[in-house]
UniProtKB/TrEMBL annotation:
InterPro entries: PPR-containing_protein (IPR050667), PPR_rpt (IPR002885), TPR-like_helical_dom_sf (IPR011990). It comes from Rhynchospora tenuis. It comes from the Eukaryota. Pfam families: PPR_1 (PF12854), PPR_2 (PF13041), PPR_3 (PF13812). PANTHER family: MEMBRANE-ASSOCIATED SALT-INDUCIBLE PROTEIN-LIKE (PTHR47939), OS03G0201400 PROTEIN (PTHR47939:SF13). PPR repeats lie at residues 62-97, 98-128, 135-169, 170-204, 205-239, 240-274, 275-309, 310-344, 345-379, 412-446. This is Pentatricopeptide repeat-containing protein. NCBIfam families: PPR. Belongs to the PPR family. P subfamily. Keywords: Repeat, Transit peptide.
Length: 481
């Protein structure tokens, strides 16, 4: 795609020269090439401009012209526009959608989490079997979407339906179902499906085995991982980093670190290079066993082997440092992290803030909060909850509002909701109502989460009239909307 991106201006320049008044009129095929080019480099809107020129030239578009545009819309999560193109635009232009059009839209629905829309469309295609015959890709796409949603039983319904219609499942279909079963802990059923797959003459691939290894490890059913790896090799597949990482993770969770190290050595001896996930897994296991110094050595080894630490690596070590009360070293680690081009995110700071507040290191927590905002990282709802909960037991809650909220900047009303809850928890109902007014003054629209704690406290205190006035204010806001 990068190579195409660099050639993108050249391709369009050639097209414009071709389409100039003295040039040769481009045909549908030429337009299709350029539209596909635009879509592949995330320029779907420019592709629509070319579609407009195609129609202006009185050429008749075919489904192949629309397919890259549909993919671009789905990739950009513009599902409503993609559906309108399939159901309205294409038929209006005398270009009925084909199987690829519908399958592309179904994939878009699944990627956007609109699984019910995907299944409805597939059912419609099945209902009009002679006109739109779904293929193995169409069915597998829906089965994958259902499995990712945890609806494995429904996925099997479509699996049986595709077989009854004479559409043969392929390895990808079986892999998807095996993965869905393993995610639900139904490893025994997954193994049965593996046997079914083999009986149909389909050869499992490394993805199949990796899924099963991971499932067996998570269920604690893999007693001798070495034998399984040998079996995978015997079947003609080479275990990869994903295979070894699954085994190493299971061993670390069982605190069998020495065995995990042995597998790491075996991994390297077979020409499979450990990746950041491998090292993170071992370091996490060591930290959970309170072996921070050993974990730090693995961090050094990781870097010496040319494997770059990521945000997860640093979060593991930072959390362990905080647990051991070595908060000063966390600042050094943050600097090292940034120097290596790894930018801390809101989760990193939330982890650190949570530990500092739990240890009653409130001044360090304030400093951490200031640093977080100075790096342009917006506090989340979790951040505000950590900070305000920590300070709500002291007498400087309003100081937090002034020094944290106003100085650091609240991007939504989540910070105020946290503060309201803190005041209500302390029984300071009038202060909570003052914060509610501040929410409105700051230009945020209070929602039910802001009103509910105050309303419940007012009713508990017997201040029914005040509660009614509060509810009336909610209704008034809804009426204004």
């Amino acid at each position: 795609m990068d190579n195409l991106s660099t050639r993108y201006p050249t391709i369009l320049s050639l097209f414009n020269r071709l389409a100039c008044p003295r040039g040769i009129s481009p045909d549908v095929y030429t337009y299709g090439i350029c539209i596909n080019c635009c879509a592949r480099v995330n320029q779907a809107d420019l592709g629509f401009v070319l579609l407009g020129r195609l129609l202006k030239d009185r050429l008749r578009a075919n489904p192949a012209v629309f397919t890259p545009l549909l993919k671009g819309l789905c990739r950009d999560n513009r599902i409503t526009e993609a559906a309108a193109m399939v159901f309205d635009k294409m038929p209006q232009l005398g270009c009925p959608p084909n199987l690829i059009s519908y399958t592309t839209l179904i994939k878009g629905y699944c990627s956007a989490g609109k699984i019910s829309s995907a299944t409805e469309l597939l059912e419609k295609m099945i209902g009009e079997w002679g006109k739109y015959k779904p293929d193995v890709i169409t069915f597998s796409t829906v089965i994958d979407g259902l499995c990712k949603e945890g609806a494995v039983n429904k996925a099997f319904d479509f699996f049986e339906k595709m077989r009854s219609l004479g559409v043969l499942p392929d390895t990808m279909t079986y892999n998807t179902l095996i993965n869905g079963l393993c995610k639900q802990g139904a490893v025994e059923k997954a193994l049965e499906l593996l046997d079914c797959m083999a009986s149909k003459g389909l050869e499992p691939n490394i993805v199949t085995y990796n899924t099963l290894v991971d499932g067996l490890c998570k269920k604690g059913l893999l007693e001798d991982p070495g034998k399984l790896l040998q079996y995978i090799i015997y079947k003609g597949h080479k275990p990869d980093a994903v295979t070894y990482n699954a085994v190493i993770d299971a061993l670390c969770k069982k605190e069998e670190i020495e065995k995990a190290k042995k597998f790491l050595k075996g991994m390297i001896s077979r020409g499979v290079q450990p990746n950041v996930v491998t090292y993170n897994t071992i370091m996490d296991g060591l930290c959970k066993m309170n072996k921070l110094q050993n974990a730090m050595k693995w961090l050094d080894e990781m870097v010496s082997k040319g494997v770059s630490p990521d945000i997860v690596t640093y979060s593991i070590i930072m959390d362990a440092l905080c647990k051991e009360g070595e908060t000063d070293k966390v600042e050094e680690l943050l600097d090292d992290m940034i120097s290596r081009g790894v930018q801390p995110n809101v989760v990193t700071y939330n982890t650190l803030l949570g530990r500092l507040c739990k240890m009653k290191e409130l001044e360090k927590a304030k400093k951490c909060m200031r640093e977080m905002v100075s790096r342009g990282i917006s506090p989340s709802f979790v951040t505000w909850n950590i900070i305000i909960d920590a300070f709500s037991t002291t007498d400087d809650v309003m100081d937090i509002l002034v020094n944290v909220l106003l100085n650091y900047g609240a991007r939504d009303n989540s910070a105020y909701i946290s503060l309201i809850k803190a005041y209500v928890k302390r029984g300071n109902i009038d202060e909570a109502m003052c914060v509610l007014k501040r929410v409105k003054q700051e230009g945020f629209e209070p929602d039910i989460d802001a009103y509910s704690p105050i309303k419940e406290m007012l009713l508990e205190m017997g201040r029914v009239d005040d509660a009614k006035d509060l509810i009336a204010g909610i209704d008034e806001n809804k009426a204004d909307d």
